[in-house]
Structure formats: C-alpha cells, structure tokens
Amino acid sequence: MGSDNRHTEIGQLMALMRMSKREYEQYLANGRVFRHARHLRDNNQKILNLITSDDFDLGPDLTSAIGDLTEHLQDWARCWDKENDLRTPKDDDVFVFTGYKTYPKHLDALLQAHCD
Amino acid sequence: MCGIVGVLGQHEAAPILVEALKRLEYRGYDSAGIATVNSGALGRRRAVGKLVNLSDLLVHDPLPGKSGIGHTRWATHGAPSVNNAHPHKAGPVAVVHNGIVENYRELRAELAEHGIGFETETDTETVALMTEHFLKSGLSPIEAAFKTIDRLQGAFALAFLFDGQDDLIVAARKGSPLAIGHGDSEMFVGSDAIALAPLTNKITYLEEGDRAVLTRTSLEIRNEAGELANREMRKIKLDHARADKGEHKHFMAKEIAEQPIVVAEAIRSYMPTGADQVVLPDTDLDFSKLDRLTMVACGTAFYACLTAKYWFEQLAKMPVEVDIASEFRYREPPITDRTLALFVSQSGETADTLAALRYCEGKADKIVSVVNVPESSIARESDVALPIHAGVEIGVASTKAFTCQLSVLLMLALKAAADRGTLSDEELADHAAALRGLPSVLNTALDQNRAIRKSAQRLSEARDVLFLGRGLMYPLAMEGALKLKEISYIHAEGYASGELKHGPIALIDKHMPVVVMAPRDAVFDKTVSNMQEVMARKGKVILVSDDDGIAEAEDGVWSTIRMPHIHPSLAPILYSVPAQLLAYHTAVAKGTDVDQPRNLAKSVTVE
User: Region B146-159: what's the mean pLDDT?
Assistant: First the structure.
C-alpha cells in the first residue's frame, strides 16, 4: 500500500477552507457582527491546527503556499484576539479589525490542481 | 433519548439546568422539567414540548435555588404530558431517570400493599415513591436512594434530590451512561460530557452499577457491591464536546459538510503516513485465524454493516452475517470460537446492540466494536474498540458518523484481505490510494449541493419515494430511504434494483419518484434496465451517477445528480453525500424539524 497521506490532507484542508469561506461570506453579509467572526475564528483555528501539525506535509510544491497560509492565519488570529481582548464584544456587536497579512489566493488553484 | 442534568452550584441553578438541557436536546425528547432545593424546600416545574415552554414557565413562575436536577423526557411509559414529565416527586424526594425500570409493576404492587397510590403511568414514579417509603422507615436520604437502586431491574441512569438537602445529589448508573463534572466548589451531573461542556472540562464517567454521592466539594463512588470505587477524572477537550452549528442552518447541514474533514481523520488514524498497511492500534487481531464474521447493529449503522458485508466477502473472501441487533439474540445464533463478532454503534450506548454484544461474550473469538464514543459501554465491553473519529454528531439523522463507519469498515476489510492474502499488494495499494483520495472527492460531491437542492424541491411534493441500487449501492438505497423518511416524514423504501419486478414495480405511476443510485460500474447496465422499466410506467427517475453514467442513461429521466468518478469499492461512501443532501433539502422544503425529527431519539438506550 502507498504510505503518502498528501491527498487525504489536501481534501481535509479544502473542506475546512470551504467552511471558512462560507463563514466569511456570512460575516460580510450580516453586518460583520461578532457572532460570525467567532465562528470564523473557530474554523480558522482548525485550519491552523491542521497545517501546523507535525505530520502535515503536502510536499515541496505546496510548501511555500502553505507557509503563506500559515502566516496569514497566524497574523489574522493575532489581530482577532487583540481586538477581542480590547473590546470583549457581545454576539451582535460589530467586530472589525485590520492590519493582517492577506490571504494567499493562489493557494486555491494550487490545491485544486492537486485534486484533479 | 432522555437526558439528565444536575447541579450543586454557587449560582441560581434553574438557568444552568435549562442551558444544559438545551445541549441535550439532540437526544430527542417530548417534555422537560427541573427541580431545585431552595432554603431546604424542594420545588419543581415541568412542561410538555420544547424547552422554550419550560423557559416560559420559569419566567412566569421562577424556581430559585442553587441545587437542582433537570430532565428531557422521551416517552416510554405513559404519554408525553406534564404529569408524566420528570422530575418525579414523592414527598421529600425528586427523581430524574433515563432508561426503563423493567420490574416496576412488581414494585408498584409491593408499594400498593403499603397503601401507596400512584399519580402517573411512569416507571420513574415508582422509584420516587419507593425512596419516600424507605425515608419514612427511618433511612437517611443516601441509604434510601441506595436501597431503592438495589431493588431496580433494567437499564437506568438516575439522579435524586432531597427536601432539606441543598448540598446533596445521589446518582446511579446501570445500563445508561452518566457523567459527573467537577467544578470549583461546584459539582455537576450529566447524561454526557456535552451537557456539561461549558461548565467544566473535568469529567468522571460512572461505570456499570456505580452509585455516586455528590456534594459541592466531594464525590464518593461505590460499585454495585457497595465497595468504594476509584474512578479516573479525565480532562476532556471542550472543543470536541462543544456543539455549535456555526454558519449552518442545521447541525445536519454542518455535519454533512464536515465529512471530508472527519473521514480524513479516520483514514489518517488507521493508515498513518509512513504505514504501508492498515494499522489497528493495540491489537493482535488476525483475520487469517477466523472463519466467519458476524456483524450486528441498528438503523443507519446496520446499513453500514450491510455495505461492509460486500467488502469483506469480495475483498477478503470471508463469510459474513449481518443482523439487526434487536432480533439477533432471539435467533440464538451459534457463535463459534473462530467467529469475530463486530458491533457498530455511533453512540456506543445502543441498548439492543449492547445486549447482542453480551450474548457473544465468551462465545466469539474476539469482540470488536466500531463506535464514535470511545468511553461508551459498547467500546468498554469490547476486546477491541475502533473509534470512527467523526466528532460529536448532534443531528438525529446520522450523516458523518455513517461515512466514517463505512471508511473504518472498509479499512478493516482491507486488513482482513491482507491477513488472508486474498488481494495482491498492487490491489491493496490501489484501494489504499483511492481511500486516501476520498476526502477530496467528497468535496467535489458537496459542490453539487445546489443541483441536489433543486431535485429535492421536486421530491418534497411526493407522498412516497423509492430508492434503487444494485450490488454495493443496494444498502445505500436503503440508507437513502431511511434518511428521507426520518427527517421529511415522506414514506420511502430502498430496494435492490433486481427486486423491482418482484413486487415494488406495482407501485410505479406518474406520482412516484424513484431515486436510482448507479455509478458507471460493472452492474450499471442492469440497473439502467431496471430504471427503464420504471420510466416505461411513467415513474419519475432521479439518476445519481457519474459523467459516463449520465451520458449513457439520462434520456427521459426527471433529473440527474452528477458525482465524480470513484473507485467502485468507495462508491457507497461517496454516494452517501447526495442521499443525505436529498433528504436534508427535502426536509427543509417541507419545513420539518431537521435536527430533532418527531418521535426520534439520537441515542436509543432502551430495548
């Protein structure tokens, strides 16, 4: 049997990213309130946990893009946590923050190419 | 089924109890209630229907007190009514109960001889009355509760609260699970860790026959023999216990969407990076030494077993029997010492499956379970417990647990094939590679959500629906039908395509939608012939297939649902997604309660 779990991990990562995308869309569509930001924070943390786990390895051609995603998510989470600590918002409060490294959009196409 | 919570706290108990009961809603219920002790006085509030009715009652008629017990009831003995709702109270004692007291008639007769009358039809009232009876005879609350528990036969979890005792709950477990939560000068009781998740992450699970005495600062557990018992306190991961729909309308939708993630977890657990074989942890299980496999389960897990029968027979050339757990014991099947007995249950607490497992104890070579809850009774009573890693499943209609069960069972079949030498290394590698790619393919199936919703809109107007499948898709046809009837209340049946002409075809007319699960595989042509027979009688076919299958057979069908290409062995796992989404969107279109469908319970803990 082959011993490489790359494809399993790509599938897992894509599903988590799909859920984050859905949560971000809901956040934008519903007044950017904390309830949706909280859901997004939870799911993004799951992505971070996956891609920073010891045995996660999608191979050399994706290393750089995964590194960019890690930086984006760590930066985003840091800004989220800082804003949350400052304001301790309630679910219906508007929750907006900036200043984090942007999402590496090229990753989507790269992952899809590995699935096809 | 029924849910139990209890709190000895530092704050008002009623809102904590109601919130905890909300977290147990997923188990299914039709009435709810709480009792508290306030300044030594026992009071209670109960309401029929959803928890919002109990909350409304508490707004108008508050129940103060920092100690309390609560319950969601799924009716067994007596209709859903305020009178039958828990907690049951008899004089100075209130009781909540999950399970069935099988000897309650005998106990009622005994109490009647003492001139004690009854107000309800429930078995639980008997428990409260018997405890009161023992209290009147001079026993302390703890002694009275213990003496009552000694008299009970059946499966139960119980919590007792007493008048004048605002720092005491007595709890007991026999057959139904119960967890104790440790807080900071607070103590909690819950049917599972989910109920207690925001309150504490420190949990002690009671074991079979245990009874516990809780105060705010102490927990004393005795086993069935009355001896002090030392039970481990575990720190659970709150993330695993927290139940949150996120941005999804229903838990079921979230759980369907999570499938690529949790199936990947299952695959990584049994086929870790670097391993070239399926790896079962901590076991010397060797299928080459076994003659036969007996699989037992209920509901959706039963259909997972039926699917696995094909895998074990085709891949490992191993004879397999599959039984519904509630019937298994009554056949008194001979189990030899070269039989592997395998039990599948999401909760690991399914009463019939547990009873079947106990029937096999001492007969089978090994007892293996495939469960989602590693601390469950079924897991603990097995020689080998294989977790499916699906995470908490809240929707009553099982989705992600089903695909994880299938994934684990397929890996087990591959292990059997390797042990028995029935597949070559190349064939094993081929299957393993396909399995490792499954999460990505599941993502592609989920992309069809919109198209499936359109088909479901049409399906929602039907009164009856048939599902057809052949070979590996036959059990999935039955699972698809079960999913649809569970949550949309539309009558649905799953048939082997080849059986159509032996009866079901008489049902076909222009009003009958027929969902055909047919990947372009070795039996596709035969299935399409059966589909043509349906269309010739004006039946409305929804064809679920891949590009090749749809290109060949889409003429004249009502609608199509397009799936990606997949290794034939994995098709039942992939095609579960459209079956689940069809049921989900049909139920949403009909406006039914998707996550808590009427009359159903998530964890069936009574026989």
Answer: 94
Average pLDDT rounded to a whole number, residues B36-59: 94
- For the stretch B553-606, pLDDT in tens is 999 999 999 999 999 999 999 999 999 999 999 999 999 999 888 888 777 766
Reading the block at residue B318, the tokens are: 């191993």
Please confirm, yes or no, whether B360 is among the known catalytic residues.
no
Whole-angstrom CA distances from B51 to B21, B29, B170, B201 are 8, 9, 25, 25
Helices (H), B79-190: 104-113, 123-136, 141-151
Q: Of B257, B428, B439, which is closest to A8 when you measure between CB atoms?
A: B439
Helix (H) or strand (E) holding B71: strand B67-73
For residue B273, pLDDT beyond 90 = no
Residues with Cβ < 8 Å from A51, sequence gap 6 or more?
A: A13, A66, A69, A70, A73
pLDDT of the residue at A1? 41
Interface test with A, best of B279, B436, B448, B547 (most A CBs within 10 A): B436
Helix axes A106-115, B438-446, angle to 10 degrees: 110
ipTM: 0.85
Cβ atoms B169, B161 nearer than 8 A: yes
Those residues with Cβ within 8 angstroms of residue B288's Cβ, 6 or more apart along the chain or in another chain: B419, B420, B421
Cβ-Cβ contacts under 8 Å, A1 against chain B:
271, 275-278, 414, 425, 428-429, 431-433
